[in-house]
Write a structure and sequence with these properties.
The chain has 653 residues and is mainly alpha-helical. The protein folds into 4 domains: 75-86 and 100-166, no CATH class; 174-296, no CATH class; 302-445, Tetracycline Repressor, domain 2 (Orthogonal Bundle), CATH 1.10.357.50; 475-514 and 525-650, no CATH class. Helices cover 69% and strands 1% of the residues. The chain is built from 24 helices and 2 strands. It has a two-stranded antiparallel sheet with strand order 1-2. 32% of the residues are buried. This is Tumor necrosis factor alpha-induced protein 2-like.
């Protein structure tokens, strides 16, 4: 960035500063009229010469520049010499006004060169005033004069020069403020640059202001602050000045009503880009951002955020409801979902995820309080509830395209579940849990509809368990059942494998649960039948496990192990051995309740009431208090044992 030094404006700032403090600094009134401040002739000739001839200067001009450069590089040396002259002059008894006048003019000449050097802080061209060593010398000069001001305050007031205190440090800070304001004013009015693609005047103004703030602060950090002693903390001075000037201009822009696009863009700068990308830039690490605060006042920021959130809420709600309505219309029209890679598919989940994700991404940059994201995510939660209800209503209507629609719905359910579980930002844990519960209900509805024809058949097949032909091995109940399931599952070939696998695994659990329920309800007539039946159970468990592994469900070996454990309990005749096996089963399955224990023990021969009570008590004593990695997933909760009261009464009688 480039500043065009305006020497006359600088001198006006200095003169105003002197006049403002004159009454306090010289309570008795000046002893002489301050001479008119002038630009040193050599600087003026050099500026005039540059304006006329540009960069193509004759050799004489170069010699003059070199001579001037040598002089300007000695600003701090000149300052020290003037201080020595001042000390000598004002310690003499008889000093002339002519000597004082000449010294004052020299101070004024020095001040012009100092302020020119400061004013050229951001000049990147190779002008003498823009060189770091010149600025460093100017800063040293300012600090020398501040120290000299302090010395004179410790002496009698009537002995001090009329120009003391100079207060150049205050003038320096005022000059920085004017420079910053001018920088931003120029940036805002400059229509050139790469902001033309922005759609509104307000956006272009904010962008130009923000970019200038970033560029100038980086220049201050990389080039300017090294010219100042660390105790002056000039980077924070610039940071505060740019923050105040930027905030003042944004406040003016916010004083009139902003449309939604301008509101969103301004919030993006205020809540995200300025605090996170500019102030946290690695080169600006020294800026004390906590002291700066927000660019906007709380009431203004709150008004803009409410305007943004209210509109965004309505948009998200409208988009989601429109997407669901379009999906429902497709169902009711009798259309079959499209096939992609031979699997049924619906774009609904992708559309919903894009709407929610884009809205949350924009929200995270526009709104400071991220907890307010729930004002948007509540519409995702409401959408899922409406989606589930629509699918349930469709299942009740049972149209001809129901199964293809359900298969496409399972794909949507999985995509939404993956997004909510791992990628969705802004969802509170409780809200996430409710969304996942709704998706589980939606998935269960689809499973039930797709597998409903199977459940009745499974029950018929399993009714032959524990009959004499099954016990002696002449009736291959499970073989027939698995052959039937193989034919039925072929109808799910157009269901995406990632969705088919959990459905098949759920069917596996349901089959084993019905098998277990049938076993626990059976009244075995003899020990021999019990032992033979336990052998059939082990064989059936292995067959079912192998079948479902072939169907892609190999993640539930505990189901086979559970049947084998129950078979082992039925095979054992020694009460102590039965005791150990039952306790081990209860430790592995937290949902193996007391009712299940009683139902299982009621099948055993040779157990006394005391044995049963002892086993039940031991089970309760040895249950783990906390979840363990050795525990299996819930299974026995699927096995209902409402008949157990009758069993217990039989044992007691």
């Amino acid at each position: 960035m480039v500043l065009v030094p305006d020497a006359w404006s600088l001198l006006c700032v200095c003169m105003l500063n002197k006049q403002a403090g004159g009454a306090d600094e010289n309570p008795g009134g000046p002893r002489m009229r301050l001479p008119k401040m002038k630009i040193p002739a050599k600087i003026w000739r050099h500026r005039k010469h540059k304006n006329q001839h540009g960069d193509d200067q004759p050799d004489g001009g170069h010699e003059e520049e070199e001579e001037e450069q040598q002089e300007e590089e000695r600003l701090d040396d000149l300052s020290r010499k003037l201080i020595l002259r001042e000390e000598e002059l004002f310690t003499q008894d008889g000093r002339s006004e002519e000597e004082e006048d000449r010294l004052l003019k020299d101070f004024e000449s020095l001040s012009v060169r100092v302020w020119m050097a400061v004013h050229s802080s951001f000049v990147t061209t190779a002008t003498p005033a823009g060189r770091p060593d010149v600025l460093r010398s100017a800063v040293d000069t300012i600090l020398q004069q501040e120290t000299q001001d302090q010395r004179w305050t410790e002496r009698p007031a009537d002995s001090a020069p009329v120009w003391r205190p100079l207060r150049w440090l205050r003038t320096h800070n005022l000059l920085l403020q004017k420079m910053v304001e001018k920088q931003l004013k120029d940036a805002e009015e400059n229509e050139t640059g790469d902001t033309g693609q922005l759609s509104s005047v307000t956006k272009r103004q904010v962008c130009r202001l923000g970019k200038r703030v970033k560029e100038d602060l980086l220049t201050a950090a990389e080039a300017v602050r090294h010219c100042y002693p660390s105790r002056m903390d000039v980077l924070n001075i610039y940071g505060g000045l740019y923050h105040q000037a930027f905030a003042a201009r944004l406040a003016q822009l916010c004083s009139s009503e902003l449309d939604l696009d301008d509101c969103s863009y301004l919030l993006f700068w205020v809540n995200h880009y300025y605090p996170d990308e500019i102030l946290k830039h690695k080169e600006l690490d020294g800026i004390k951002t906590a002291c700066l605060g927000s660019l906007l006042q709380p009431e203004t920021l709150g008004r803009l955020e409410e305007q943004y959130l209210s509109h965004r809420q309505e948009k998200v709600k409208l988009w989601l409801s429109t997407a669901l309505k379009k999906e429902e219309e497709s169902w009711l029209s009798g259309k079959t979902p499209e096939l992609i890679d031979c699997y049924y598919f619906s774009p609904l989940a992708i559309d919903v995820i894009q709407v929610v994700n884009s809205s949350l991404t924009e929200f995270s940059c526009a709104i400071k309080d991220q907890n307010k994201a729930q004002r948007l995510t509540i519409h995702l939660e409401n959408f899922l509830s409406s989606y589930r209800k629509s699918v349930e209503d469709l299942a009740k209507a049972n149209p001809s395209n129901l199964h293809p629609v359900l298969k496409a719905t399972l794909v949507c359910e999985q995509q939404l579940r993956d997004y909510i579980s791992g990628q969705a930002e802004g969802l509170a844990e409780e809200q996430k849990r409710r969304c996942l519960d709704t998706l589980s209900a939606l998935r269960d509805c689809c499973y039930q509809c797709l597998t409903f024809p199977l459940h009745g058949k499974i029950k018929v097949f399993l009714s032959q368990l524990w009959t004499p032909p099954w016990v002696d091995g002449s009736l291959p109940v499970v073989d027939q059942l698995l052959s039937f399931l193989s034919q039925q599952l072929a109808d799910l070939s157009d269901l995406k494998p990632a969705c088919k696998q959990p459905l098949v695994c759920d069917l596996h659990q349901d089959l084993v649960a019905q098998y277990m329920k049938k076993t626990m309800k059976t009244r075995v007539k003899s020990r021999q039948q019990q032992v033979a039946g336990s052998e059939r159970m082990v064989e059936d468990a292995k067959k079912m496990d192998g079948f479902f592994r072939e169907q892609g469900c190999g993640s539930a070996p505990y189901l086979s192990e559970t049947l084998c454990s129950v078979a082992e309990i039925l095979r054992l005749q020694d009460p102590a051995s039965v005791h150990l096996e039952v306790v081990d089963l209860a430790r592995r399955f937290p949902d193996f309740s007391g009712a299940h224990v009683s139902a299982l023990l009621s099948l055993k021969f040779g157990l006394s009431a005391a044995d049963v009570r002892s086993i039940r008590a031991s089970v309760e004593e040895n249950r783990p208090l906390d979840a363990s990695a050795n525990q299996s997933p819930p299974f026995f909760s699927r096995v209902k044992v409402k008949w157990i009261n009758n069993k217990i009464n039989q044992i007691k009688s």
